[in-house]
Amino acid sequence: MSAYALSRRIVYVSLLALLPFASASQAADTAVNFDGGDDFIYVASSNTLQDVTDKSFSWCAWAKPSNNPPTTCSTNNNTCAYGVISRPGYHTNLNYARSGRFGAEIWTNSTTWNGLSSGVIAPGGWHHLCLAVDDGAKRLHFYVDGAPVAGSPRSYTGTLRDYRTEPYYIRTGRPNSDWRWHFK
Predict the structure, then answer these.
(1) Residues contacting residue 85 through CB under 8 Å, at least 6 positions apart
(2) Which contacts of 68-74 are long-range, i.e. CB under 8 A and separated by 24 or more positions?
């Protein structure tokens, strides 16, 4: 797959492909380029994917923000980040915040937020992000470029949020809402 820009198109994906780990230069050669407009990748929640975030799981992605998210956003700070990958409704996600930090967030069914963030990382470079949730030990791990961020792992309590049939989004939090987070 070569790099290309999605122009106001939504790509519907029914299955996630398992890809071998790639270096930053290989990631650049196979990346999808998002322009900050309203394009994103939609991954439908199938029987296979529906319960993935209800138990121990890992999400990893390469991301290269072009700039920091806007500082002018609504009074709800949730609109001030770029979505890398997200499961909406009390978003479980990877994001890049206007503070210049990558973040990883999970929610429990008691609507309790648990998250970790990196140190400040300037836009313009490729970074490998991994969110790993060990539900048996009740620990959230977040790695940027292979190193754990400060505070990782973080303990949490409760049951992971059940997203039922909510889809997965790549490069947005939830389109057509206050939590768009369109990645650039």
Answers:
(1) 59, 61, 93, 94, 168, 169, 170
(2) 68/96, 68/98, 68/99, 68/100, 68/123, 69/96, 69/97, 69/98, 69/181, 70/98, 71/98, 73/98, 74/178
Residue 41: Cβ within 10 Å count: 18
Torsions phi, psi for 104 (to 5 deg):
-130, 130
**Least confident span in 8-22, 51-65, 126-140:** 8-22
Contact 30, 20 (CB under 8 A): no
Please report the pLDDT score of residue 174 as a whole number. Answer: 67
The pLDDT value given to residue 48 = 82
Contact 76, 67 (CB under 8 A): no
**Looking at residue 184, what is its pLDDT?**
74
Q: How confident is the model at residue 79 (pLDDT cuts 50, 70, 90)?
A: low
Contact assessment for residue 152 and residue 140, using Cβ atoms and an 8 Å cutoff: yes
> Is 137 a residue whose pLDDT tops 50?
yes
Is residue 14 within 8 A of residue 138, CB to CB? The reply is no
Using CA atoms, how far apart are residues 29 and 95, in angstroms rounded to an integer? 22
Q: What is the pLDDT of residue 38?
A: 74
| C-alpha–C-alpha distance, residues 152 and 139, integer Å | 9
The encoded tokens of residue 19 equal: 């890809």
Counted residue by residue, the chain has a size of 184
CA distance 42 to 120: 29
